[in-house]
Amino acid sequence: MSAVRKIPVSLLRPGMVLYRPVYGPDGQLWLNSGVELKSKYINSLWRAGISFVFISDPFLADVVVRDLVSEETRRHAVKAVKETLQSAKLLKRNSLLLDKRFSSIVEKLVREVLASKDVMINLADIRDVDDYTFFHSVNVCVLSLLNATDLDLSQARMEELGAGALLHDLGKIWISEVTLKKKGSLTPEEYHEVKKHPAFGFEILNSQAKFSPNSAKVVMQHHERCDGSGYPHNLEKDDIHSYARLVMIVDVYDALTSERPYRLGMKPHQAIKIITDCTESYDHSLLTSFLKHIAPYPIGTPLRLSNGYLGIVIENRKGMPLRPVIRIFKNGDGFFYQEPFDLDLLDKSNLQIVDALSDAESEQELPVMTKHKGSD
After folding, report:
1. What mean pLDDT is reported for the chain?
2. 96 C-beta neighbours (distance < 10 Å), count
3. Helix pair angle (242-257, 132-148), 10° resolution
4. Reported pTM
């Protein structure tokens, strides 16, 4: 696939071309990749609560972005999580919840992640804010599996981890929707209620004969912290299962970078800083491994360098997150180069990334060219 720019729906313009499809809450295709946006499409995205989409940039047409798992597998996984959580709310205790279809989704996610374990995470999901839990669950599963590729786990253990990560928020089915989607701060009573969801999920899965106890520990312990500051039991590192120590990092990262009813999602580099500022809360070796796989400045990110250059990230490499390859469009005086050129920060030790441009700055300094001006 050619490279992309992540653009907030509020900054979309007619004539821009979709890079990645947009799907509805039940997996139905709304807008396919390659569609030229019209005003009515943009308005529909806004009304549907979609916060951003991925747009093709003609100046990055030669740049390739590899997906960790296929779009089809991701959609099937989201659907499986949604149906499993909905079924769990209706079923009686000890009823069969997890079937062969759920197991096959986990197996497929494991296979695809293992086949792409050297891929850096560059793209997020286009999600409806109302379906946060389902998309978040799949993202946490995929990123946890990617992190686990450094741990030399067997296929069976990878599937244990994947199943626990995919259902880590299962207990939220017993938490009020009003509380989960509240735009303001939670009251102490509401927060106390939310903190019950790990135990609720653990109770549900503990009744499933075929669900591994190790997977269930992910559900119970993903909000614990290695310094004992987490919940529900204030466990410290040695008492927290290794799967849960891994999932807790990914869970926080994906939550911080996701759009919520009460706040905008953070940029990856902002979320990484928050996590690394609290290193005592996490397993140091697992955090170090996680950071090797996450691009703080994903492909398509507009950056400002220490010499004033403005450019867009076109390549990230595992283990070297702060030294991407950047396509330079503007010099330090703010003038466009007639012919943009690629600059590898690995070869330029004197240059540093100063910051990532905000969405508004990006639109002003390095706007995406539209396919046809004036499309409506």
Report:
1. 89
2. 11
3. 130
4. 0.89
